[in-house]
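Notes from the 1:1 (GR / supervisor)

We went over the backlog. Supervisor wanted to see one worked example end to end before approving the batch request, so GR pasted a single chain during the call. The sequence is below; no edits were made to it. Supervisor asked that the structure be written out right there so they could see what the output format looks like.
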Amino acid sequence: MKPTNTAQDIQAMVNHWLNTPPNGDLGSDYGADPQSLLQNPVAAGIGDAFIGKMREDVPALDVMPVGAVNVFYVDALPDRSELIVDVAGWQEHVSWHGLYQGRL
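Structure output shown during the call:
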């Protein structure tokens, strides 16, 4: 019988990917650099590239439809933005002081 990934498994995979810096393992470009999304125009397509790399590094996301994985910012007071990675309704908030789980 083939093992099945649960929603919690996929959440853990995405969380691990977000917490692993790119090139953290010698010879592997696995990992995320959320700060690379800062100070770029929305039209640059960098969010799509971020999602593409996430789908490449976390193959379990390939079974999800195109609109099920999203990346966006929300304003956080007083003067900063927060990156949110949304995977089929589950959201991972990325703050620049570390990662924490939560929902909007």
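Supervisor's comment: Strands lie at 69-76, 80-87, 90-95, 98-101.
Batch request approved.
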